Automatic annotation (TrEMBL):
Pfam families: Pep_deformylase. Binds 1 Fe(2+) ion. The keyword NAD does not apply. It comes from the Bacteria. The active site is at E131. Fe cation binds at C88, H130, H134. This is Peptide deformylase. One of its GO terms (molecular function) is peptide deformylase activity. Its cofactor is Fe(2+). InterPro entries: Peptide_deformylase (IPR023635), Peptide_deformylase_sf (IPR036821). Keywords: Hydrolase, Iron, Metal-binding, Protein biosynthesis. SUPFAM superfamilies: Peptide deformylase (SSF56420). The keyword Iron applies.
Amino acid sequence: MALRRVTINGEEVLRKVASKVENIDKDLLKLIEDMKDTMYHCDGVGIAAPQVGVSKRLIVIDIGEGPIVCINPEIIEMSGEEIDIEGCLSVPEVEGEVKRPKNVKVRFINEKGQLCNMKASGLLARAFCHEIDHLEGILFIDKVEKRRSRI
């Protein structure tokens, strides 16, 4: 198990547009494993590479059904709308209501180099949107409609 330090709001890497991943090599595979370990250790449902200090277009999500690794993810379709509470490993002690698409279709490359398309709704759609926002330098607090402190 290799844990990485989670970057916190205010650190520059969280506000940069992340670079496209060009190669799947042993360093990237190690980063993926470290991100999984860090996400699970912090009880997160998703993590983006900038959250561990790496400005690459890479996210890992697990809403309880096993990890989904997405390299260079992009949302290609979205529909519906719902508001729910979000938090973020990089913005500790804050939660807020955020409006997100109810349904999304995401295109990405998995860790085996395969091009994937995945449809998601509810929490999974929200997690995709939240983590992909990180790759654009956007934090959930930028979209919060109603903010509150975690207790």
